[in-house]
């Protein structure tokens, strides 16, 4: 054996070192694989987050609604409102239900009875049940009311909701007026209405009649203007009612042909008393003038004195006080406060113009409204009531104007026959409207 270290055989390799290399390679390969997997996961996660943030969420498809289905509720309301503009024909059973078997009576007269009722939606109504009889007067009254007020829509006219007509019943369904008729407030002992409210009632009533005469497609003559036919709502706004005597006529007609007279004694125009005298829409103007006298005095136009042969006719007293220049004292005697006496004096002048004997001398209701509102200076009226002293066509025609009363000139310029276009300021500085 050679102990010098120079052996003839090569060195034997160490088994531990040969085993270490594959282990390192496998570890490195695992780490690389893990890194690739983690990188892929991070990449995928970022892509998913980006898609969630930037891509909008698509809503679920909703059922398609056709445009006529979408507008159906609106159109239904429109058609319902359209139907409500015209009178509805009710059955007798419906009216019995509305009035709870006619439980509450509001009033009774020669025409029939009026009952309070209510529609299912809570709207209060007044049902006027007309008396049936052998004559045709009730039937004519029914047709007159439906044929006239049924085609009008104005804030100062009572509204007709509908009617009932069958073999047993004739009835009219009106809006309910909370404060009843004007006569109950004028002629009662407990006079609660202040003058300003009465003044507004006069103006509103005039506007309602002006609409009937001048704004409807066919002129409507009421024939029975009086405080009992002026109804007051919850705010005491006036509405002209009771068109049982009303008549339609063309605007071109200068007069209408009537047999007998229409209206209530005390309010009837003098032309009704004269044989073969033409009747015009100005008969309503006369009746309105008498109504104004009653508002000023808060009393009926005629009172019977202690002697039954002596009549206390208030319109005649107003004229006599006007002639003496004592209208202001008259208004004071009627209990009108100082702040309201100028308006009351103006109303007295309007009443004297409306009550002229000649229909041509009476102003149209549109002029009456202007005079009552106070924006014009009223021309002093001529003497009315001449028919009381001498009845005849010549007397009634005396003093009449051209027929329309418009276009006449006065000392104040080119104004209407009954008033001057002026204002308090213009009057103060003596300014007049220029003539053309």
From TrEMBL:
Sequence positions that bind ATP: 128
SUPFAM superfamilies (alphabetical): Protein kinase-like (PK-like)
CC terms in the record's Gene Ontology section: membrane
EC code(s) of this entry: 2.7.11.1
Subcellular location(s) per record: Membrane
Pfam families for this protein: PK_Tyr_Ser-Thr
Membrane topology listed for this record: Single-pass type I membrane protein
InterPro entries: Kinase-like_dom_sf, LRK10/LRL21-25-like, Prot_kinase_dom, Protein_kinase_ATP_BS, Ser-Thr/Tyr_kinase_cat_dom, Ser/Thr_kinase_AS
Keyword match ATP-binding: yes
Broad class of the protein's primary localization: membrane
SMART domains documented for this protein: S_TKc
Protein kinase domain mapped to chain residues: 100-386
Keyword Plastid: no
Residue ranges of the TM segments: 23-45
UniProt keywords, alphabetically: ATP-binding, Glycoprotein, Kinase, Membrane, Nucleotide-binding, Serine/threonine-protein kinase, Signal, Transferase, Transmembrane, Transmembrane helix
Family assignment from sequence similarity: Belongs to the protein kinase superfamily.
PANTHER family assigned to the protein according to its UniProt record, in alphabetical order: RUST RESISTANCE KINASE LR10-RELATED
Name of this chain's protein: Serine/threonine protein kinase
Source species taxonomy: Eukaryota, Viridiplantae, Streptophyta, Embryophyta, Tracheophyta
